[in-house]
Amino acid sequence: MGNMAYPPTWLLLISLACALFISCSGAADKDRKDYIVYMGDLPKGQVSASSLHTNLLQQVTGSRASEHLLHSYKRSFNGFVARLTEQESKKLSGMKGVVSVFPNGKKKLLTTRSWDFIGFPQNVNRTTVESDIIVGMLDTGIWPESDSFNDEGFGPPPSKWSGTCQTSSNFTCNNKIIGARYYRSDGQVPPDDFSSPRDSEGHGTHTSSTAAGNSVVGASLLGIGEGTARGGVPSARLAVYKICWSDGCYDADILAAFDDAIADGVDIISLSVGGFIPLDYFEDSIAIGAFHSMKNGILTSNSAGNSGPDPYSVANFSPWSLSVAASIIDRKFVTGVQLGNNERYEGTLALNTFEMDGMLPLIWGGDAPNTSAGYDGSDSRYCDEGTLDKSKVSGKIVLCDGLSEGLGAIAAGAAGTVMPNDEYPDMSFVFPLPTACLDSGNSSYVHEYINSTSTPTANIQKTSESKNELAPYVIWFSSRGPNPISPDILSPDIAAPGVDILAAWTGSGSLTGVPGDDRVVSYNIISGTSMACPHASGAAAYVKSFNPTWSPAAIKSALMTTATPMSPQTNTDQEFAYGAGQLNPLQAINPGMVYDAGEGDYIYYLCAQGYNSTKLFLLSGENVVCPVGANGTFTWDLNYPSIAVPTQPGAGVNRTFTRTVTNVGSPTSTYKASVASQQGLTITVVPDVLSFESLGETQTFTVTVTAAALSNAMSGSLVWDDGVYTVRSPIIAYVNDDSEA
User: Fold this and answer.
1) Can you give 442-506 as a three-state secondary structure string?
2) Digit-coded pLDDT (tens) for 683-733
3) Rounded Cα distance, 554 and 556, in Å
4) pLDDT value of position 740
5) Residues 107 and 274 sit within 8 Å (Cβ to Cβ)
6) Under a CB-based contact definition with an 8 Å cutoff, are residues 731 and 645 in contact?
7) pTM for this structure?
């Protein structure tokens, strides 16, 4: 046996040390997660925020701090994103100068006729300064080639604009889209997305055109919903901040976009994104960003969420932002099925863009099981993927007993499908093949027809429009109040059209993304509070164009107090569904009076919420002395345009609220109060007459709400009227069942 060369002992020791180091550091890195360290207002003086963040991080991570620092927020507020262990995050949260530390969680994305329905026609009066209004859209990006964003007739960006355009080989800005950025703190862009502000999802393009898109005549979804697509402020500019990707919207990126948008000079921020569970205000990236927007004179418009109709499901509810519910307009889409016996049935949900030639064979899914794969009729009746026999279904219309996305039918080669729909009567959805959805009664008639003949045939007709006489009302999926964190604040604030909205779309893929669907469209019809939010954002921008010096609270007040009241008969959740009512932009530019509030008012409110002076100093950058006994006692006296009165089960209500209004209507005016309420709820206003002698003058009054023991919510309203302007505030008293929050 030959001689063996053994390594020296020192080399073995070094190798062992290296192995241990790699193992330990690898284990530490594996245990690390991305955390957001929020530090409030920007530091005063010539302090470098980045150096401050690195030094702070070194105290918990040591010399490798710079490796763990992912991003610094330093343009509009103070904070950073770092890769930390749980122990390091807890240590940081207790350090001086830190407001909160929370994981970089993920949030989710929450659409011609809609503006006309809310009384905002194309020919409304507009100001010449509308083109100086910049709407910041935090979403999935934008498809810049859309006609909705053509910059013909636009001059250069407003001089106040300080933003930039992250151009790339596939993206450029123009004088309509004056800025665009994209954010991905971990650098891991999904393979099916663009590493640019370009939109691959469609959502951001849709919301941007709803808020501020150009007027585009003849827009439609392949002939459905044809009309003039337009945004609330067609002459306004767009600044796009891509924060959402195919795998969601991360808190670190949301905050980075807020940090830039505020410093860039936007006037309104629109954010159709929400979380999964309610969070403390300063552990919620959206509430944090909206707070600093408010500090800088920018109103943030948020979607309320799509988790309705459960109570306490509202996703965005901070009092310094606008929370928008989704309502239905008076147009609905129906799709008909013509049977071979000359009977015709129609239903909602399916948006069928296809035109079927003649009558085609019709088969029930239960009669076409894929037996070779081990399925029988009890499986194939629901038409799940793989359960249908292609040889029996191909080229035919298949009747299914279950509602699905149609993937099973298209995979089996079906020419179309008819499915039951009793669950979703008020909205529409695009399927990858010709589809009609019927209620269970009409579906049973189709079953009977199939069993009555040996050669059943049918034709699925292209979707048409009909009138919804009950509109407006809030759709079932729109998230409901009460406010899960601040029960004295009514949430949502307002309702806006959010169902079956036609707006611009991405050109990056097919309409459904399903193999075999080759439809690429310029405009699409979708639903969600995501679609309601940009309606409110556009309306806020419209109000801002007439009243450029108004605070975010004043604009919010104008939108709420001029909203069209909605019916509790068609909205049984009352104000917890629609807030102040249906958005009415035309009235909002001249509200008569506003309930104004500024940073100091919100700071005092946070005192009452239990925040201490140390943290409030970090938020505001100013010394804050919370009044003795403020904790939890005077939250209801925030100068809010609505009134919510929570109480405990079996307890009554007797509470007095103080409110202050600012005259923005006629210089000399006298307003008289009138109240309305459900039986058993008493509302008293003192004084009940307010007289003004100048614009900008303020008057203060009290509202006392009284009721015996409550079992159900009871609502009412206060209206101030001077013969020219009516200023309405909703009032609701309710049992606050914290167990449901």
Assistant:
1) HHHHHHHHHHHCCCCEEEECCCEEEECCCCCCECCCCCCCCCCCCCCCCCCCEEEECCCEEEECC
2) 999 999 999 999 999 999 999 999 988 888 999 999 999 999 999 999 999
3) 5
4) 55
5) yes
6) yes
7) 0.92
At which residue do the structure tokens 């009793």 appear?
A: 422
Q: Which of 208, 486, 530, 677 is catalytic?
A: 530
- 192 as an active site residue: the answer is no
State the catalytic residue, choosing from 34, 41, 132, 139: 139
SS (H, E, C) 658-717: EEEEEECCCCCEEEEEEEEECCCEEEEEECCEEEECCCCCEEEEEEEEEECCCCCCEEEE
Any catalytic annotation for residue 530?
yes
When mean pLDDT is compared across 81-85, 321-325, 566-570, the lowest value belongs to: 566-570
Strands 349-351 and 428-430: parallel
Q: Name the residue type at position 94.
A: G
* Catalytic-labelled residue, pool 203, 206, 292, 535: 203
Report how far apart, in Å, the C-alpha atoms of 350 and of each of 113, 380, 403, 421 are. Answer: 19, 21, 11, 9
- Token pair recorded at residue 518: 């080759």
Six-digit token pair at 375? 């399925």
Classify each residue of 530-550 as buried b or exposed e, where b means 16 or more C-beta atoms within 10 Å of its C-beta. bbbbbbbbbbbbbbbbbbeeb
Copy the structure tokens of residue 23: 């193992």
Q: Which residues fall within 8 angstroms of residue 46, CB to CB, at 6 or more apart? A: none
Q: Residue 395: left if φ>0, alpha if ψ -120 to 50, beta else—which one?
A: left
> What's the CA gap between 454 and 456, in Å, rounded?
6
> What gap in Å lies between CA 270 and CA 668, rounded to an integer?
36
Is 376 among the residues known to form the active site? no
